[in-house]
Amino acid sequence: MAIIEVTGLRKSYGGRTVLDGISFSVEPGEVFGILGPNGAGKTTTVECVEGLRRFDAGTVSVLGLDPRRDARAVREAIGVQLQQTQLPDNLKVWEALDLYASFYTRPRDWRALMEEWGLAELRNARFGKLSGGQKQRLFIALALVGNPEVAFLDELTTGLDPQARRSTWELVKRVRDSGVTTVLVSHYMDEVEELCDRVAVIDRGTVVALDTPAGLVDRAGGPQQMRFTLHSGAEDPAAIVAAVPGVTGAERDGDRFTVTGTGDFATAVTGALARNHVLVTDLRIDRRSLEDAFIALTGRPLDR
Ligand SMILES: Nc1ncnc2c1ncn2[C@@H]1O[C@H](COP(=O)(O)OP(=O)(O)OP(=O)(O)O)[C@@H](O)[C@H]1O
């Protein structure tokens, strides 16, 4: 059974539609990404699911509960790291954990959580003195303190430097490995590609695609290319390459080859050449990225 089931979710503010029939479901144990540009409706969507915002139409089920009817039960079962969550600067790390634990009827032992997430040595540090990465570590621990089955992480790495972003990604993988289903809201392609099992791409209040990151890239359509130079080999590479599944074309210019294809054809081509003892050099694969997929789906780059 899906952990979260959203069907035909609609919401408008003052007559302006911001969610125009959003549907998706989240399976147990997965990291489910919600990707889209600023203002697409990502936060509104997750806050409707969390029971924090009212919606106008559609149905939402979280662990079989309706957030409109059973808001309290839903809040007990989920962990939320709100976007730009702020705590008072003078609150100590242990006080924040203790405070959040008090919101739940069956919280985790926050002292153990503090150890687990490497916060023990920061227990008396004040929130305002923490680095960006340490704050995110604390926010994740706070999202887990209620012992949730689902955690919502919203724009977790916005404003962090590249190193802190990477360490925060490792934390998200730990959350996933601990068996907690995770909904990750992001407007970063690389983050979604690295962390998510499946992604709903939201644009202007609708889901324009829902697939694995690799599936989205494939859907960007159009052939991909690989290029190589023939180094040595008895066989004619053109014939070998043409027989590989997924290959849609091959061109030869002297010793230079350009092969076009779809799916994972490049791996299959390299394998076929190696099996036939054809040595190639200067191998280049022009992979499509999630960014290409986004442009193909929405007609514009993510950061516009
Ligand atoms: N309380 C509100 N009142 C009026 N309009 C709102 C309100 N909250 C959000 N909006 C509008 O709804 C649209 C969707 O906002 P939302 O925050 O869900 O987008 P988002 O995809 O999460 O973007 P961001 O990444 O910038 O947070 C935006 O145009 C926003 O201005």
Automatic annotation (TrEMBL):
Topology with respect to the bilayer: Peripheral membrane protein
Record's protein name: ABC-2 type transport system ATP-binding protein
GO CC terms in record: plasma membrane
Keyword tags: Antibiotic resistance, ATP-binding, Cell membrane, Membrane, Nucleotide-binding, Translocase, Transport
Any one GO BP annotation for this protein: response to antibiotic
Major location category of this protein: membrane
The keyword Cell membrane is assigned to this record: yes
Subcellular localization: Cell membrane
Any one Gene Ontology molecular-function term assigned to this protein's record: ATP binding
Chain ranges of the ABC transporter domain: 4-229
